[in-house]
Write a structure and sequence with these properties.
By secondary structure, the protein is of the alpha+beta class. It has one domain. Helix content is 46%, strand content 20%. Helix 2 packs antiparallel against helix 3, helix 3 packs antiparallel against helix 8 and helix 6 packs antiparallel against helix 8. It is globular, with a radius of gyration of 18 Å. This is DUF6272 family protein. It comes from Delftia acidovorans. InterPro entries: DUF6272. Pfam families: DUF6272.
C-alpha cells in the first residue's frame, strides 16, 4: 500500500466515523482486547450511556458469532491458534459513529436516531446460507414488540440445542442484536463470483444501527 493509498484509506475511515476495525483470526483473547479498545474509544464519544451499552453488547454478540459460526479455516491456514487448541475463525468487524446532520436538535427526537453503526463479516458454508437468511428475514420482519416477545420466549427455550446444530441459541443472538438496534438489521450474503476465492463458502455481512 502506497502512502497515498493509505491517506485515502484514512480519509474513508474518517468519513464513515470509524472508531474501531479489526480483520483476522478471532479467538477469546482477540475479542477481549478489541472490546477493551472499544470501551476506551466510546468513553470519549458523544451519545447516551444506553446507546453505548447497547453498542458494546452488540459488538460482543457479533464477535461471538464470528468466533462460533464462521466456517473454519483450512488446517494449513490455522497456524498457532489451532496448535493452542483455541477456536479458529476468521472475519472482520467494524464500529463507527453516525454524525448528526447540521442543525439537528441536541435532544428530543434526536435521541431516537441511530448514533452508531456496527458491521461484521465472515465466511459461512454455502449449505447453511438458506437457513441463515431465513432466520434473519424472520427477525427483520418483526416489530420491536415482537422482537422483545420472541427474545423472552427463546430465553426459556431449552430444546433448541437438539434441533439446531447450525445456529446455537435458535436465533437468540440475532434477537438480542435486533432488540438493541434502532432499525431492521441489514445483511448481504455473497455466494457467486463476488464471493471471491472462498468456495465452498459464501461471505456473510451484517450491519446494525444503534
Amino acid at each position: 500500500m502506497s502512502p497515498s493509498e493509505f491517506a485515502h484509506l484514512r480519509a474513508q475511515a474518517e468519513h464513515n466515523g470509524l472508531l474501531l476495525y479489526y480483520a483476522g483470526t478471532f479467538n477469546p483473547n482477540v475479542i477481549q482486547a478489541a472490546a477493551d479498545t472499544l470501551k476506551c474509544r466510546l468513553a470519549s464519544e458523544d451519545g447516551s450511556s444506553s446507546a453505548k451499552r447497547k453498542l458494546f453488547s452488540t459488538f460482543i454478540e457479533m464477535a461471538q458469532n464470528v468466533l462460533h459460526y464462521a466456517a473454519p479455516l483450512p488446517a494449513s491456514d490455522a497456524g498457532a491458534s489451532q496448535a493452542l487448541g483455541e477456536p479458529v475463525a476468521q472475519g472482520a468487524i467494524g464500529v463507527g459513529r453516525i454524525d448528526a446532520p447540521a442543525g439537528a436538535p441536541d435532544a428530543g427526537a434526536d435521541q431516537a436516531q441511530a448514533r452508531f453503526w456496527i458491521a461484521c463479516s465472515n465466511a459461512v458454508r454455502r449449505e447453511h446460507v438458506p437457513r441463515l437468511a431465513a432466520k434473519l428475514d424472520a427477525v427483520r420482519a418483526m416489530s420491536h414488540p415482537e422482537i422483545k416477545a420472541a427474545y423472552k420466549a427463546q430465553l426459556h427455550n431449552t430444546d433448541h440445542g437438539a434441533s439446531d446444530d447450525i445456529s446455537r441459541g435458535a436465533g437468540l443472538g440475532w434477537l438480542t442484536i435486533a432488540r438493541d438496534a434502532s432499525a431492521p438489521l441489514q445483511y448481504h450474503i455473497a455466494t457467486g463470483e463476488d464471493a471471491a476465492d472462498t468456495a465452498p463458502h459464501a461471505v456473510f455481512h451484517v450491519k446494525a444501527l444503534i
